[in-house]
Design goal:
Helix content: 25-40%
Structural class: alpha/beta
CATH superfamily of the largest domain: FAD/NAD(P)-binding domain
Keywords: FAD, Flavoprotein, Membrane, Oxidoreductase, Transmembrane, Transmembrane helix
Cofactor: FAD
CATH architecture of the largest domain: 3-Layer(bba) Sandwich
Number of helices: 14
Distance between the termini: 34 Å
Strand content: 15-25%
InterPro entries: FAD-dep_OxRdtase, FAD/NAD-bd_sf, Squalene_epoxidase, Squalene_monox
Largest sheet: 9 strands, mixed
Function: Catalyzes the stereospecific oxidation of squalene to (S)-2,3-epoxysqualene, and is considered to be a rate-limiting enzyme in steroid biosynthesis.
Protein name: Squalene monooxygenase
Length: about 525
């Protein structure tokens, strides 16, 4: 474990003359959490900081390293620099790993006992099918990676803090500083000394995670909680398929299993809705042993029951929040503070890293961040240019979760069965969807076509050997049900931004990445 003081003390030495705090003059606290000044302030660049980053998770740490490599002076403020223990953010898809390579951060998956992931195994009603990532055209190192989230984040923080123009500080940001509709920086409380400090910079990036208390002034958050994960760590057991994630299409919803170290397997049990069996009185343990255990693969069932008996059970709500930014001069949203999707497909880190690549390339020609007008245009362009990749992964996660849910509706049941069988066909029927899921081919059009190919496949089976009134009626309900699943998600993502991003006014041309 990396001691959190190491970050703060070493970076403080490097930035000894960087943080010239201003006096708190004429503060007006708004209802949205921003802080306005009603008196004139000094020039913003007197702090010596180009970018303030709120949060040092995967997104914040990766962005700090990336912008610092461009020569920007970066100040990162993180609430807690100790190694965190989370039950999600543990699977990086191959598409995300490619972005990690592009950002020069691939060594962050080393020395943390990370496991290579080569695809998925899908289980349903005693049947199974293996779906391999289409990695044939890539270097042999390219694959998914699974790991303990906290170990990965600490490596990312260490990588960022190793750069002389990055200061990584532990503190709690209480508000954004606003003046005349523009974000000028942040107000935060230091961990050392518990002082209230105002820090200014031309650009503030908010990426303080799913519980962000700053996002309301920068977007229109519509957070939905469709389900919760119950997390367990199974020890010293072998999954049926080595180096693969496992998805059980269980009742009432999916069960996920994947390795997070050489001796541990993460198990995530999805429970729909927001009401969970209580852990304290033993109802959760009873539910897991009687309802879930019979559905997990026999190879891990004993380890599953053992960890339930030990009481090592954790829960976390699964949040969904479409990106709906309010472009604000001087500020930017990133990561789970900005955009969330159901974690079923493990796409969150891929979206965040892809966003950072887009932002890096957009900001490369901006020599002076104090050119507020130019900077604002590039920030607005970012919100559009990220859409094709992000919306593909978001839509797939939401649609696949709804398809994988058990239902009393016959049309939904047929769709679920058809999805499993379609993926089992092999060829493009499996390689196409798995390329979407892995982030290797984040194409909105491909997603749309494969989704309705599953629906048409489901209808086609009903027509054999001869169609009937009942099968025709059920077929129409399947198409209607499929439309009811995917179209609301696409609408929330934005049809134009998702399929026709170049019809949205923005700056689209940026220099090619440096070789």
């Amino acid at each position: 474990m990396i001691n959190h003081l190491r970050f703060s003390l070493s970076s403080t030495r490097r930035f000894r003359n960087l943080n010239k705090s201003k006096k708190n003059r004429g503060l007006v606290v708004a209802q949205n959490g921003t802080v306005s000044t009603n008196l004139a302030t000094e020039d913003d660049d007197d702090s010596g900081v180009d970018v303030i980053i709120v949060g040092a998770g995967v997104a914040g740490a990766a962005l700090a390293h990336t912008l610092a490599k461009q020569g920007r002076r970066v100040h990162v403020i993180e609430r807690d620099l100790f190694e965190q223990d989370r039950i999600v953010g543990e699977l990086l898809q191959p598409g995300g790993y490619l972005k990690l390579i592009e950002l020069g951060l691939q060594d962050c998956v080393k020395e943390i006992d990370a496991q290579r992931v080569l695809g998925y195994a899908l289980f349903k009603d005693g049947k199974h099918t293996k779906l391999s990532y289409p990695l044939e055209t890539f270097d042999s190192d390219v694959a998914g990676r699974s790991f303990h989230n906290g170990r990965f984040v600490q490596r990312m923080r260490e990588k960022a803090a190793s750069l002389s123009n990055v200061r990584l500080e532990q503190g709690t940001v209480t508000s954004l500083l606003e003046e005349n509709g523009m974000i000028k920086g942040v107000q935060y409380r230091t961990k050392q000394g518990n002082e209230l400090v105002r820090l200014h910079a031309p650009l503030t990036v908010v990426c303080d995670g799913c519980f962000s208390n700053l996002r309301r002034s920068l977007c229109k958050p519509k957070v939905d909680v469709p389900s919760s994960f119950v997390g367990l760590v199974l020890e010293n057991c072998e999954l049926p398929f080595t180096n693969h994630g496992h998805v059980v299409l269980g009742e009432p919803s999916p069960i996920l299993l994947y390795p997070i170290s050489s001796s541990e397997v993460r198990c995530l049990v999805d429970i729909p809705g927001q009401k969970l069996p209580p852990i304290a009185n033993g109802e959760m343990a009873k539910y897991l042993k009687t309802e879930v255990a019979p559905q997990v693969p026999t190879e891990v069932r004993e380890a599953f029951i053992s960890v339930v008996d030990k009481g090592n059970i954790r829960t976390m709500p699964n949040r969904n929040m479409p990106a709906d930014p309010v472009p604000t001069p001087g500020a930017l949203l990133l990561g789970d503070a900005f955009n969330m999707r159901h974690p079923l497909t493990g796409g969150g880190m891929t979206v965040a890293l892809s966003d950072i690549v887009v932002l890096r390339d957009l900001l490369r020609p901006v020599r002076n961040f104090n050119d507020k007008e130019a900077l604002s245009k590039y920030i607005e362009a970012f919100y559009t240019l990220r859409k094709p990749v992000a919306s593909t992964i978001n839509t797939l996660a939401g649609a696949l979760y709804k398809v994988f849910l058990a239902s009393s509706d016959e049309a939904r049941t047929e769709m679920r069965e058809a999805c499993f069988d379609y993926l089992s066909l092999g060829g493009v029927c499996s390689s196409g969807p798995i390329a979407l899921l892995s982030g290797l081919n984040p194409s909105p059009l491909s997603l749309f076509l494969h989704f309705f190919a599953v629906a048409i496949y489901a209808v086609g089976r009903l027509m054999l050997p001869f169609p009937s009134i009942k099968s025709l009626e059920l077929g129409a309900r399947i198409i209607s049900s499929a439309s009811g699943i995917i179209f609301p998600i696409i609408k929330a993502e934005g049809v134009r931004q998702m399929f026709f991003p170049r019809t949205v006014a923005a700056i689209y041309r940026a220099p090619p990445p440096a070789q």
